[in-house]
Amino acid sequence: MVFFQEFPNVWYLAAKSYSNTSTMPSPCDLLPNKLAVGVWNRLCKYRSTIPNFPQSETCEFLIVDRSIDQISPVIHEWTYDAMCHDLLNVEGNKYVYEIPGKEGEPPEKKEVLLEDHDLVWAELRHAHIADASERLYDKITNFVSKNKAAQIQHGRDGELSTKDIQKLVHALPQYSEQLDKISLHVEIAGELNKIIRDMGLRDIGQLEQDIVFGDADSKEIINFLSTKQETDSLNKLRILMIYAAAYPEKFEGDKGAKLMQLARLSDDDMKAVNNLKCLGRCFENTKKTSGGVFSLKFNVNKVSLDKVNYKKKNAARKERTVEGETWALSRFYPMIEEVIEKLSKGELPENEYSCINDSKTSQQKTWRTESQPVHSMRSRRTATWAKPRTSDDGYSSDSLLRRASSDFRMGQRIFVFIIGGSTRSEFRAVHNLTSKLKREVILGSSSIDDPSQFIMIGYGQPFKCAQINATNNLDREIHFVYYA
């Protein structure tokens, strides 16, 4: 906040209210409140001691914990960035891969950083994996079609393999930097698509999203576990964790144990499922439209309307239509997306969220109609990272912002901090919301957890209690570990 010279309305996820007054909120329930108070006290100190620090509210700051969404950390997220960190051996942002050697020489190992200085990565990271693959194919074919020297070297029709691209790099050194970047991502996308095919992730991803949106219940899960016994244990565990998070009542008594037994999972795996349930917040019961099978576009399933309505009446979350989104397995969205939109409109539920500032005036200051956008005290234009960038082949680096004017003025910033770790689907959400809301949305967290990391935490202790470490020392600054 000091870096941005902002003084926010500080919102936080309130502790659950209990009808039984003898039951007090646990220390875990009070974490967002505790952190919000600490942040508020520090900001008030800054306001009185730092010259020119804002004296009135200039932005929104929302503090939540992992209990708002237990599904996002374990469901398969189908963006290029998320797939890389979920399926490949990526340490931090470092990726090691092999490239074909020169004639007669063995393959070479190459280490690269997947960061935004690589414009191809910056363009593709939030794109659906199928979209990313198509864009890469278009890039290389576009390069060959416009470069006569490349056409001579290629000398034939058909797809270019990674080896073909490396040959072009050696033959056309003047284009080595451009081709190296494309070659890297062709290699990565090819490896990802191979893993998706070999592991049957399309069927797994479809079942996951059908569970979330009410298209599948225990019958479909039992059928999958019975007929897809070759599915690896981690993916079966993720399916059951999603089911337990969405419908915890389905795991009461011995129901969960029977499903775990059918999936041939261990007692430690069951512990991870039970620990996830300790987060224990209820989801909104909603209805939605029907989904479909994996293809370039969703196809409508031919099932009876009565059956669809029966399954959907207690769906974990409602269907949301995303303009221009046609890729299969792109229905899922993290709950933080909906919460941020409500915050932007001044519609946060009063029984779920509180504000350290005067709540009534905060809601009034937050809410504006689309014709009356909110502006920061400091006039600014589009955030630099949110502007469309152009990679070396001339393509725009951000399809979501291609139609947006680079001159539109940004409204007040929205800062979000998630205690207990953030996910890459949440990165995608805040990235898209900056364009949609015309307000820079900045996401921070105590950690960035990919599914395997999140699940490993659950083997040791209840997830929510593990979050206490995030608020042990309020004298330290909150660090926004990622700007989506």
Blueprint of the fold:
Blueprint: E1 8-13, H1 31-49, E2 59-65, H2 80-87, E3 90-91, E4 94-99, E5 108-113, H3 119-124, H4 129-146, H5 148-154, H6 162-171, H7 176-198, H8 201-212, H9 218-227, H10 233-246, H11 255-262, H12 267-277, H13 305-312, H14 335-345, E6 353-355, H15 359-366, E7 411-419, H16 424-437, E8 439-445, H17 451-460, H18 463-466
Parallel strand pairs: 1-2, 2-7, 7-8
Antiparallel strand pairs: 1-6, 3-4, 4-5
Compact summary:
With 484 residues, the protein is an alpha/beta fold. It contains 18 helices and 8 strands.
Q: What percent strand?
A: 5-15%
- Can you tell me the CATH superfamily of the largest domain? Sec1/Munc18 (SM) protein, domain 2
Distance between the termini: 17 Å
The appropriate CATH architecture of the largest domain is 3-Layer(aba) Sandwich
Give the structural class.
alpha/beta
Our count of helices gives 18
Helix content: 40-55%
Sketch the major β-sheet: 5 strands, mixed
By CATH reckoning, the class of the largest domain would read Alpha Beta
Strand order of the largest sheet: 6-1-2-7-8
Per the CATH scheme, the topology name of the largest domain is Rossmann fold
Stretches with pLDDT under 50, minimum 5 residues: 282-308, 359-390, 392-408, 463-477
Mean pLDDT across all amino acids: 77
Q: Give the topology string: H per helix, E per strand.
A: EHEHEEEHHHHHHHHHHHHEHEHEHH
Please, how many domains? 3
Q: Cα-atom Rg, whole angstroms?
A: 24 Å
Shape: globular
Total beta-strand segments? 8
